[in-house]
Amino acid sequence: MIRHGFDESLDGLQKDILRMGKMVEEMLDKSVESLKRQDTKMAEEVLRREEQIDLLEQEIEQKCLSLIATQQPLAKDLRKIAAGFKIITDLERMADYSEDIAKVTIRLAGEPLIKPLIDIPRMSKLAGQMLSDALDAYVREDVELAYRMCQNDDEVDHIYAQVIRELLTYMMENPRTISQATSLMFVGRYIERIADHATNIGERVIYLVTGVKKELND
To answer: Which pTM was predicted?
Structure first.
């Protein structure tokens, strides 16, 4: 494959990764919205989308392996493919967590929520913005944006701690809330992990551009 063809393949790989990222963003948004509205049909949409994500991950993985095997890329080209390989793993895990949130919606179907959901959707919005910024940083190879995006992880962690404290208070005041409060704690944990995976993507971008590995999740 001549260089022009190789560049086209790399562009195609990037577009596939972006498509997967957009699908995951939608899954996260719909999973939390389904929980907030207690909309089981919306939750089931998220479950179906997760199957598509798995197939897309396998397809992109094969493209990455094929490019490495046939082109034997070096330096930045190799880092670009390696970063793509890692990013799809992060996206697949985010999709899994969104699926887990949708399952909580289905499990709590017909059961009144112990409180209106405010902080969990706020966490979700922040984590979704982190994912969007991480993908922008990847496309633009923007290290500064990657660093700025990762800083938002602290705010997600802060809200998560607040969610846990509030739900523990509910559990202590009324033991009948324990089961649902525990489920909502897991939802907070899933979103917190999604933000961590967005941070991982930021680290991949920094490595792609600079060749230096940075740990930003401490």
So the answer is: 0.93
